[in-house]
Amino acid sequence: MLSSFLTLVSVLVVEFSVTPCSGFVLLRRPSARPSSRAGLKMQLQSVQPLEREIQRVEEDEANAAAGRKVKHVLTLIRHGHSVWNQDNIFTGWVDVPLAKDGEAEAREAGQIMKAADIKPDKVYVSVLKRAIQTTWIALEEMDRMWLPVECNWRLNERHYGGLSGLNKIETVQKHGEEQVHIWRRSYDIPPPPVDKHSQYWPGHDERYKLVPEDELPLSESLKLTKDRFMVAWQGNIVPDLMAGKRLLVSAHGNSLRALVMHLDDISKEVIPSLNIPTGVPLVYYLDKQLKPLRHPDAIEPLSGQYLGDQEKIKARIGAVKAQTGAK
Amino acid sequence: MVVKTLVLVRHGESQWNQENRFTGWTDVPLNETGKNEAKAAGEVLKEKGYSFDIAFTSVLKRAVHTTWNILEELDLHYIPVINSWRLNERHYGALQGLNKAETAAKHGDEQVLVWRRSYDVPPPPLEKADKRWPGNDKMYAHLPREVLPFTECLKDTVERVLPFWFDHIAPELMRDKKVLVAAHGNSLRGLVKHLDGMTEDAVLKLNIPTGVPLVYELDEELKPIKHYYLMDEAELKKKMDAVAQQGKAK
User: Catalytic residues per the record (chain B) (predicted)?
Assistant: First the structure.
């Protein structure tokens, strides 16, 4: 009985964005849903082949005036709904799988990239399965299952320290909205750390056995996330770009924030609330200095181009916020 | 002495197995049966407590899919997966895409048997202009033209698999890594022939059943101590006989 009532409530919440008052708090992230068949068709119709987009970028007034040319193409993709997203839990490094609709988002992203002629030579991904599953599903759609996929922990989501595994609403009720807001949205204040006995300390996980213990986080701010991400950018990704490889970077909300912050020189005041929608390929057109050329359809403060139905994407960028809105 | 573990898995049924067509380097996907076989391989490996540090597979999606399915079952999404054309299935030359029964009806069972089951007689070669030639496939654009086959006999396949064994797979085993190789009937024959020191005649009779993990325990010189399939004997025999039946004209 109770479970079917909860199902009804959750349907109401998802379909109609109803926020139930205190009691049953099942606030779901709105609009991060895969398209219907008609919706997908529209998405694919909005997509132009890569060579045409490169032309558009180079013909754009500012770029043309400066004589800048596109030398490298870098595509970013943020994985979709994980099983913990549904329950609104601070995930971080916890290795939860994609939810069914997250899988559908990955398929859609793959189809969009295929329609856009995005043909990467290699994929960089974190060591977390929600991003790896996204990668595998997208590569299957793109018919590029033979690509080298390099997993690197430095692309992981931000580590949420002592908040890992906690429900976001509960955390707000416990610590207050303001404190949680600071932990989530400040640039350099990390959440409370875990200790080395915690199940959430990465030192217990086999996949990090080749990482020196001192480098494994107990908790991370966005700044710390960026600092460790940038090591992979400089040491792995840049050399591959310079070698002429077209890359796909498949990662998470905060590791991608770190990347775009670097590419577009976004301030630390702005970056914590920048929302990169899930499952929407984000293409960067870089010159030979690895500086982005602004795409005519770019949405501030990014210079990259989201692929797909532009109106739908703009609506989603506004909607990815508010996961702790316990009003 | 640390016993080194090498697990070989031959991918399961593809769409073209169902259609009884010569596949070779054609990049056909697994069908539902094949996907289930991959899943089952992962499940039995999980059940028996196997884990891996690295996986090697070909560039053909039926093997890649098998690899991913096994890793998914074992929760090992994050281990390095190395794709190499050298683990590809044997190239079937001008027979690729043709129906096996029709080919047998046309050329006779015996000729087809020679092409399929001799050690050093390759099927008829492709022309350079044929879109089936790997040189016309962007996937192989970075490879020197001279390694791309127009056709292969088993001898050719073995010869191009072994360099990969020596230079990539063996070093991981020497470092005590637990290795998974998910590949194809003939590329795995190449590895097994080398590991077990089989004669040409013996390897021709070897039928590695699909979807059944074949475990090799190796010593410090990578000589096999023993090998075994992770499946009971009766079921195993049934599977092996089924493979031997393929390709006969009806």
Answer: 11, 89
pLDDT digits (tens, 9 = 90+) for A161-186: 999 999 988 899 888 999 988 887 89
* Catalytic-residue membership of A175: no
Half-sphere exposure of B78 (CA within 13 A, CB side): 19
Considering only CB atoms, A146 lies closest to which of B59, B75, B79, namely: B59
Residues within 8 A of B (CB atoms), A 96-155 only: 127-129, 132-133, 136, 140, 143, 145-151
> What does the pLDDT read at residue B235?
82
Query: Is-contact A46 A313, C-beta < 8 A?
Result: no
Helix (H, G, I), strand (E, B) or coil at A198: coil
Residue A21 domain-assigned? no
Minimal Cβ distance to A132: which of B78, B83, B139: B78
A23: in domain: no
The reply to whether A157 belongs to the active site is yes
Cβ of residue B139 closer than 8 Å to a chain A Cβ: yes
pLDDT of B195 > 60? The answer is yes
CATH number at residue A273: 3.40.50.1240
What confidence tens digit (pLDDT) does each residue in A292-310 have? 999 999 999 999 999 999 9
Range of the domain at A196: 42-324
CATH topology of domain B7-155+169-226: Rossmann fold (3.40.50)
Q: Would you state the pLDDT for residue A323?
A: 43
Q: How many structural domains comprise chain A?
A: 1
The residue-averaged pLDDT of B187-207 equals 96
Q: Which residues of B are catalytic?
A: 11, 89
- Report how far apart, in Å, the C-alpha atoms of B147 and of each of A145, A181, B58, B126, B141 are: 22, 59, 15, 14, 12
Residue A25, token pair as written in the block: 């708090």
In a domain, A136, yes or no: yes
For chain B, the structural domain boundaries read 7-155+169-226
